[in-house]
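Notebook, bench 3.
Goal today: get a predicted structure for Betaine/carnitine transporter, BCCT family from Dethiosulfatibacter aminovorans DSM 17477 so we can plan the truncation constructs. The sequence was checked against the plasmid map this morning, with no discrepancies at the termini. Length recorded as 369 residues. Pasting the sequence as submitted so the record is complete.
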Amino acid sequence: MTEIKKEVVNDIGNKEVEIDKIVFWSSLTVILAICLSCIIFPEGANEAASVAREWVIMRWDWLFLLFGIASLLGSLYIAFSKYGHVKLGGKDEKPEFKFSSWLAMIFFSAIGSSSILWAVCEPMAYLQSPPFGYEPFSLEAYNISLAYGMFHWGPIAWAFYALPALPVAYYFIVKKQNNLKLSQVCSDLIGQKNADGLLGKVIDIFTIFATFGGNGPGLGFGVPLLATLICAVFGLTRSPILDMFVLIIWATIFSVSVYRGLDKGIKILSDINMVLIIVLLVFVFLVGSPLFILQNSVEAVGTLATNFIKMSTYTDTIGGSGFGQWWTVFYWAWWVALAPFMVIFVARISRGRTIKELLLGIIGAGSAG
């Protein structure tokens, strides 16, 4: 088989990098097999996915919850430790991007159509099937519904990105390593021999597969949402052709943004998105009931703070409602699946930032949204 090579140009220099054929073809084979099984045997594939999901969230719920708490505590400990002031790239290193653009790129790399869909649907779902044994549509259910939405998109969720982003940023910026494969990032932990061997390839294959699986729900939720919005605005009837059109436009915008690079592509797109989201928030605030929004938001923050530990450890083992598993653990698994992609991206744009800025920026920017 002919050697697959690609010219990679970045701030480290011009290097010819050989694509790992074992990782590439193994990942491609697995992904194609999954896609084909979903097309040829949709019912069987759906049942298999449901069984796998239930096995993960019902048996390993305790591990995901503890891992989330550990990620947040670990991030905060390092941020406020004596190492927090250490700058990634040297004392005189200037940040590559201005602070607002840096935060925007972090935020919008993980939050897209989900902010439109779940901001409305999630509190309503909690209101209908609330946690903690509350009665549906009760006063307690109303109070907890908005707070739980903040919780699932709050500090613990973003800590899944913050903590692993630090060693990746150190490897890329401080050690000036061009190879951002996670197997190589783990080389100091598992040894260079293992990183170059079978264990390293397993890590890289898992990274690709996790990224594929993590982005799947985003497209699955986002494409139908945007297609439905187009139908509502222009009076069209939704069809598979319209869904495909939305997906193509979506992929084109993303591809052009990536092709133009960080400074001329993703940065500009993130800045535009930030302006649009601020305009949307101001519009909703002014057109809606400003006093109600302020009062309800403040109360939701207080409810979140009061119940934070309970939310972070809620499994309802005795009651058996499954709320913690089907919502919190599912969310945590989703965030973890996207982590390999996110930490590499965040590391790439964080040159010149301190460790405290990196950790608190990721957690703060995401939670504020």
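The first strand starts at residue 5 and ends at 10. The two ends are 48 Å apart (CA to CA).
Flagging this for group meeting.
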